[in-house]
Amino acid sequence: MRRPAFLLIPAAALFGLTLTSCSATSVAGPTPTMADVGTLGIRFGSLPAGVQAQVTVSGPDGYLSSTATNTTIENLPPGTYRVSALTAATERGIAVPTEPTAMIEVPAGGAADVVFEYTFRDFHATSPGPPPDDSTVGPNGGEGGDQPDVSTIPGRPSDFRFTVGNQAMPVRWNPCQPISWALTTDDGGEQPRLQEAFARASAATGITFQQADRADQAQIPVTIRFTTGATVEGEGEMRYSYVNSGSIVGRKVANEGTVDAVLGDSSTAALRSNLYLHEIGHVLGLAHVDATDEVMHSPLSISSPLTEYSLGDLAGLRRLGREAGCLNPPPPLLDTVASGARRLDRPAIPQIGGDPGLVLRADHSFTFGWASTLADPPTLQTRIFRVDPARRDVQGLVPIPLPLGFRGDLPGKTEVTALLAGGADCQVGDRYRIVQQNIFGATTTPVALSSCKVVAAR
Ligand SMILES: [Zn+2]
Fold this sequence. Notes:
Layout: E1 14-18, E2 38-44, E3 55-59, E4 63-67, E5 71-76, E6 79-85, E7 88-89, E8 93-97, E9 101-106, E10 111-116, E11 118-122, E12 179-183, H1 191-205, E13 209-211, E14 220-227, E15 232-243, E16 253-264, H2 269-284, H3 311-320, E17 334-343, E18 348-349, E19 360-361, E20 364-372, E21 381-387, E22 397-400, E23 412-420, E24 431-438, E25 441-448, E26 451-455
Parallel strand pairs: 2-10, 12-13, 12-14, 14-16, 17-26
Antiparallel strand pairs: 1-15, 2-5, 3-4, 3-6, 6-9, 7-8, 8-11, 15-16, 17-20, 18-19, 20-23, 21-22, 21-24, 24-25
Helix pairs in contact: 1-2
The structure holds zinc ion.
The site of zinc ion (ZN) has 4 residues, from helix 2.
């Protein structure tokens, strides 16, 4: 059973899709609107042979692309581009970019270049000193300090698959915001095991998981049921939505999931741990693999359950986690102020197309101000809604017509005035919402009217 799509904010044309709607990631091509475009060269420096690198490029107007080879991207609108290299996994180890993210300025009519260097961590080399075949060196024989000895972890780093999106750009959660989970049912004593599973997922991804008190406020409700027998069953699901409004072509970002577990009353603790790790893997965007020594293999093995993620699981989780970069919506606005006025001077509202003989005159105006930091990626659209206190549904949010071309994307102080003709009302305390969107989502900042003055006619 799948619940209906989850809407982040009404009236902003957000669509939620379940993971069953598999689709290849479409990459928006550059759309130069002027002759003055630039180029961006991407080169891979010290990349070991056989390592498949991956670099994503994001920039102005929601530009997004990715490459796995040395390449020069042409016809780019000038501006600041964020170029991020992912950790690349091979059977032998992982190649970690020394500087994973670069902010590159592409000049109009010019060229910019970025080179990524990697360091290679070989899973089969014992460090430092002893040769790899020195069988007298045990798991704790090296000088690695707190570093886990990866040579004892089963599996292969190439054994992972993503549920949605392609190998280069899987659909994932924003790893830079905490994700909440909560039990919807009596835990039957399973809570510590679940907490440990989320802690392991956190260690593998860099994502913070927070246990919420109330299941209806958690992004990942967890259901545990009991049955007879020694087996376990489960379902883990990732859901995502994307902003796709007006000129904005949004990216899919996971924002909801579920874990359902059915535990046989004689199932072992190890098998239950294996199940939780597996379902959390699904919630984070991992699909099943054929390799039997990975947690993401299905079915789970009753005789030899895995209580820790294996190398393929870990490699996949790394690519879904912090190392792959934040997917931040715009930051919340600060110092918000809102004031209204009844306009006896009745200024003309600028006409956009339509009948030039028709002049609309404003009987009210509303002015909103805020301070903001620079959004990364940039804010593409700002909208303001009046909250109708009498309604709780989508119709309770009435869009306020902002001046044409207003994007509200500049950092620092912003002020915008909306002129309204007819139907407006102004009461101190009236609630409004300022909604800012970028390619990764929308951020809503509430604000209330602090004054309602009368502007006299001249
Ligand atoms: Zn599964």
